Amino acid sequence: MSLFTPARMRGFLRATAVSVVLLTVGCGASDAGGGDAKSTAAVPAGFPVTVDNCGVRTTYDRPPSRVVTIHQHPAELLLALGLEDRMAGTAFPDSAVLPELREKYEAIPELAEREPSFEKILDAEPDLVYGGYGSAFAENEGVPVRRSPTRASTPTSTVSTAGKSG
């Protein structure tokens, strides 16, 4: 039995597309001359971006710069895109990491072997928490980041789900 059913593959491809938009749009030309404070605070090309994910609507004003991943496949996706410099931490490696990404993966701080505590996530100071499954944020299973008072300052994103966990 294949791990990639058509539905899972579509979910994975959608998540990949969203990740590429969110994390690489801001990689365009930059002002090497230093500029003034107003120009450095300019909104990056392609932003703001609003994403509706699992019934939660979030607007991103700029590409995330400190991402925490929950489950290894979101971490692998960011590493494969060359975004390891934006990873503040990872947790819950639920299967073996791809051999070609193992060295980069091991350089990312591991926040927890399973679901990280809410406090552990906050300690990493992320501007995006990227979970592999909806259960990563379910109050009865994962970390209730979406229900926290800091939710507006720490957007969350999940892949492989269509708004339902379990």
UniProtKB/TrEMBL annotation:
<dbReference type="Pfam" id="PF01497">
    <property type="entry name" value="Peripla_BP_2"/>
</dbReference>
<feature type="region of interest" description="Disordered">
    <location>
        <begin position="141"/>
        <end position="166"/>
    </location>
</feature>
<feature type="compositionally biased region" description="Low complexity">
    <location>
        <begin position="145"/>
        <end position="166"/>
    </location>
</feature>
<feature type="domain" description="Fe/B12 periplasmic-binding">
    <location>
        <begin position="66"/>
        <end position="166"/>
    </location>
</feature>
<dbReference type="InterPro" id="IPR002491">
    <property type="entry name" value="ABC_transptr_periplasmic_BD"/>
</dbReference>
<comment type="similarity">
    <text>Belongs to the bacterial solute-binding protein 8 family.</text>
</comment>
<protein>
    <recommendedName>
        <fullName>Fe/B12 periplasmic-binding domain-containing protein</fullName>
    </recommendedName>
</protein>
<dbReference type="InterPro" id="IPR050902">
    <property type="entry name" value="ABC_Transporter_SBP"/>
</dbReference>
